[in-house]
Amino acid sequence: MTDVLPAGSLDGKVALVTGSSRGIGADTVRYLAEAGADVVINFRNKAPRAEKLAAQLRELGRRALVVGADLTDPASVAEMFEAVRAEYGRLDVLVLNASGGMESGMAEDYALTLNRDAQLNVLNAATPLLGEGARVVFVTSHQAHFIRTTPTMPEYEPVALSKRAGEDALRELIPGLAEKGIGFTVVSGDMIEGTITATLLERANPGAIAERRESAGKLYNVSEFAAEVAKAAVEPVPTDNTRLVGDVSAFVAE
To answer: Are 97 and 25 in contact (CB under 8 A)?
Structure first.
């Protein structure tokens, strides 16, 4: 998928996407670079993938900074933004894409630590680099966004609740961001074919993806959903700060 964003629409801009060594994050950062942005590729433990992506984006004539960071570690996050400041001096687009909570062997409160506390800390740490006209995008799922009114699969519920807690906490910052001229958009998507979360859900609940696909009529794949995330970084902020991607007829609005 090419020409997701108008050519040159991000010329001279700097964009950071958390969790961008693979999947939705990698495609999002690629679309932003194709539109002209210099980028920051953030990864937790996939350094070779991140470096390979950076090399591809440099071939487009973009600058690409690769920064490993554990988003649940405030010191690691501070180091990441110090690297961004040293390399670029500013940030125009921040996409809060990284999330998790279904991994095995993590602490009981890991989902909340990553999906709420870390998201808030990343945004707060980034804010000094964000100037007027900058954009922040938070990536979530319908299963999380609508969790208070529409139940989800038990296997996913702890993640959904933590993602919604993160969304709520970030939304409280919208007035302060708006005062600085910074736009904030939540992008919520249905289950995405080919993501780690979908794979883990399918493992825990065989047939879940097919069932949801049948109910929705279509599920977006990784590159299609990433295109919507990238567009949210450029297109006008919706009045309710929410961009819903895919079918929502099975979900009850609050």
So the answer is: yes
